[in-house]
Write a structure and sequence with these properties.
Layout lengths: L1 E5 L2 E6 L11 E3 L4 H13 L8 E5 L3 H9 L3 E11 L5 E6 L2 E3 L2 E3 L6 H13 L3 E17 L2 E16 L11 E7 L13 H12 L3
Parallel strand pairs: 1-9, 2-4, 3-4, 5-10
Antiparallel strand pairs: 1-2, 5-8, 6-7, 6-11, 9-10
Length: 208
């Protein structure tokens, strides 16, 4: 299954019939290029609403369908981290008024692992990190210079080994850094993006 966040709404591409029952507010989309474009435009135009609203494309081959979907966008690779300290607390950043996770684009010649570590160090001022394991990939779209962009973000679990000089990277619109206890963090009430909420839910509730 692939889940792409468009304007905060999920578009699901799946070959598993069980995913058809994701929620009462999910609507079926045709597995055609025209159907995909219609779905994209519908979600891009939608106002923010409360509820489990999204679109789903049921297909025999989710990977092939996702590849066709991806051709409608300019690709961008990014990487970031769920960073924990020695107390098991999770680091969140406040970016443009919303709680987020440190991440950024993969530079030319970098691996996604190298990019994830660099971005966390740059955005948070952490001196030393240990990359523990990959968590998952997530997808979201946006516009850049009037072109549709599909960003694939590779997420990793990390351990902060030295962080006494932490500072938010103001030029990236990060104004605060805060450690949260995962046991008491209310993910559903956290002022964040839907994609980040889903990532936190999967990573923290499964203990990944």
């Amino acid at each position: 299954m692939y889940k792409i966040f468009i304007n905060e709404y999920p578009l699901v591409i799946s070959a598993d019939e069980q995913d058809f029952f994701l929620g009462a507010n999910y609507r079926m989309v045709d597995d055609t290029t025209a159907g995909m474009l219609g779905a994209i435009e519908t979600l891009e135009r939608s106002d923010k609403i409360i509820g489990n609203f999204g679109l789903i494309i049921m297909t025999e081959d989710a990977e092939a369908t996702f590849k066709r979907f991806s051709k409608l966008y300019q690709p961008v690779a990014a990487a970031g981290g769920l960073v924990f300290n020695e107390k098991g607390e999770l680091l969140l950043i406040l970016r443009q008024g919303k709680w987020d996770l440190p991440k950024g684009k993969v530079d030319k010649g970098e691996t996604v692992e190298e990019a994830a570590i660099r971005e966390v160090q740059e955005e948070c001022g952490i001196e030393k990190l240990e990359l523990l394991e990959p968590i998952m990939r997530m997808y979201h779209t946006y516009y850049l210079e009037q072109k549709r962009v599909l960003k694939t973000t590779h997420w990793f679990k990390m351990q902060a080994l030295s962080y006494s000089k932490m500072l938010p990277q103001l030029e990236e619109n990060i104004t605060d850094l805060k450690w949260f206890d995962p046991k008491t963090l209310d993910i559903d009430e956290l002022d964040t993006y839907n994609s980040i909420r889903e990532l936190l839910g999967k990573a923290l509730r499964t203990g990944k």
